[in-house]
User: Fold Secretion/DNA translocation related CpaE-like protein from Sphaerisporangium krabiense.
Amino acid sequence: MHRPLVITEDQELLDDLLRVAAAAGVEIDVAHAAAHARPYWKHAPLVVVGADAADALAATGPPPRSGVLLVTRAPDDAEVWRRCVAVGAQALLRLPSEERRLVDEFAEASEPSARAGEAICVVGGRGGSGASVLAASLALWGSRRGLRSLLIDADPLGGGIDVVLGQEQATGARWPDIAEREGRVSFAALQKALPTFGELTVLSWHRGESPPIPPEAMRAVLGAAHRGCDLIVVDLPRHIGPAAAEALSRAASTLLLVPADVRGVLAASQVLIELRRHTSSIAAVARTGTLRPDVISASLGIPCAGALPDQRGLSEALNRGDAPSLTPRTPLARFCATYLTPRRPPPKPAKPPPPRTANPPDSPPNENAHHHVTEPSAPSPGGGERRRVAGRLGSLRIESACHRVGEPSVPSPGGGERRRVAGRSGSLTSESARHRLAGSPGLPLGESACRRVAEAPGFLMNETSRRATARTSWPLTPVTARHPTGRSSRRKVLAHFEEPR
Assistant:
């Protein structure tokens, strides 16, 4: 991946730019002369030009491009705007007053691609309702299905959501380590600093003194997550502080876990008053109890996102240090699948099959040429079966001749019976087939096939069919029904088997 490019000969300006880049968590390429910048000019995602190098760069005639900034440390320079136009810069930044914007520009240039992540806040209507377990399960289920997920623990008194995952010993930053961050943060840098397990990144609390989260830090983390994640799950405390309010205002939906009893509904109604001050997209999740989910939804005046029964063995698994079980039959997995299924990544489109091409006009015909010269291109009824009859009985391949000349494949009488004759090693398996053979001496069954049947009495495996075949008159007479075989092929067959007069 290409890095931002800085072009300057001013050492003091370069020190400021390196400090700003470090604050954004990105690495930069530095060109101390305008001529050295030409190989990087086209590919760098962002070009920062010092005012001291603007004239020399303009003299080299660089091709116009986007993402060029001119920076200066002089507060009032009459020539700076002329230099800005000369190098084709889109903006002029004065340091140190506009360092914050430069940090954002560096961070945005280092982001590989925006993902437009969706945030979900989870809050318990009463203590012990299972909000932390549900939040961890949502993030874990999404990460196992290919969603890049970030799990944020915004409850400083919750004991740490990394304990729910059994990862309290994982190395990485916690909230006190990044609480002083503000402004734009690169998600790549955030993911590198935090504990990460596959597609799941976790920002939790440590065990110790828990200072409040500044809203600026929450804003910076959520901003980076929205650009770099598919799914963001925030475990909120029941008391809504400034940081929790920042998360609620940026969330696409909020889940309120409600114990299914009278006291649980009353407690959830008090929390709901606080939530409605910051968001309107709230849904209830009913726990196991005496009240039905529709009663809870009607009492609180919010829709119900589903019911979450108690999961057997969950407390024992958490005490052992195991993450919540998300096998398909568990209540947590069923709820996560129902709620998060619309957020799955879209499947990759399948490659279209290669188009069929007709044979060239001068190419010799083949047995399957009817797929290219007849309309419609689907094979005619019984075509494959007729070919198998001809191949098994050793007759001339007269079917492909019909298709090569383009005659329509009209199914002859008794086509189904002939297919059964061919499909059962030559034996007649139905009464209707034996009746048609016995009662129709002129049955258009392919003259070569009839001849070989008559010559091989052991081929038809029952006496009735053998007697019916023996009654067929020889020499064969031409049939009046239009056989799918071409006229020329029919004459050849009849001439081959007809006795000389």
User: Anything to note?
Assistant: The longest strand covers residues 118-124. Residues 118-340 form a domain with the Rossmann fold fold (CATH 3.40.50.300). The CA atoms of residues 5 and 29 lie 5 Å apart.
